[in-house]
Amino acid sequence: MVQILEREELVGRIAAEEWRGGRRVGLRSWLLTTKSREVAERISELYQGEVVRTTAGGDSHVRRLHARGIMVTVARVAHVRRRLTLESRQGLVHACDGSRVLPPMPDEGKPCGCPDDLFARRAAARSGAGPRPDARLVFYLAAAPELGGFSFQSTAWQLYESLGLVLHESRRAGGPVQMELVLREQRMATRSGLDVSCTYPEAHSVRRTSMVKSALHLAA
Ligand SMILES: [Zn+2]
To answer: Is the Cβ–Cβ distance between 195 and 187 less than 8 Å?
Structure first.
């Protein structure tokens, strides 16, 4: 499954998080990175893009997209990777679906030993003892499939959990599906009374769709 994703010829990637000092920070807007100026401009028109930077020589364009939701088309279930992983200095040491070992680990299919309880899972990940979400999608923009394929990667628990439902429905639909990636803001008060908020992505509303021909050659 991973090989299929790596082989894909992608025109850009969209993120909703950054890593600062080893910690994941959820972004309040989407971050697009592409090598194509035309793609950057077209997407900026569609999703209220704002220039973040263009590298010298213009070979990388980064735009902040202020749209809350992005409707995407996923060509096949294999274009969704949803797993929990833990890495050490030696590389990948745990890959699972929360209860069973996933490839490329040698004990594929065997019980992985992660706790059933979601809170316990999150606590283990926070302390570095347990795996954390590793979700990746390859998709076409429903509003502009002719631009080509994009990837989206996230380590947010909310995306990981919402993708579980999406995958279930994708398998039932058995063909290309449309879903919406949405940024949600959650507000909470800390113990000292501070009002803080965090933003995370979620996947929603799967429905079967047909793809335009120009998009399908990349999906083959
Ligand atoms: Zn596990």
So the answer is: yes
Tell me the per-residue pLDDT of 175-210, one tens digit each, with 9 for 90 and over. Answer: 788 999 999 998 888 888 888 888 999 998 777 777
Q: How far is CA 104 from the centre of its chain?
A: 20
CA of 110 to the centre of ligand 1 (A): 10
Q: How far is the CA of 204 from the centre of ligand 1 (A)?
A: 25
Residue 116 contacts residue 109 (beta carbons within 8 Å): no
Q: Which residues of 104-135 are buried (b: 16+ CB within 10 A; e: fewer)?
A: ebeeeeeebebeeeeeebeebbeeeebbbbbb
Mean pLDDT computed over 91-119:
94
Length of the chain: 220
Output the DSSP codes for 171-192: HHH-S-EEEEEEEEEEEEE-TT
Distance 35 CA to ligand 1 centre (A): 36
Phi, psi of 97 (to 5 degrees): -105, 15
Structural domain boundaries in the chain: 12-81+133-219, 85-132
CA distances from 160 to 24, 84, 134, 137, 146 (A): 15, 9, 8, 11, 28
Q: How confident is the model at residue 211 (pLDDT cuts 50, 70, 90)?
A: low
Cα(194) to ligand 1 centroid in Å equals 34
Asked whether residue 30 carries a pLDDT value surpassing 50, the answer given is: yes
The two structure tokens encoding residue 173: 């639909």
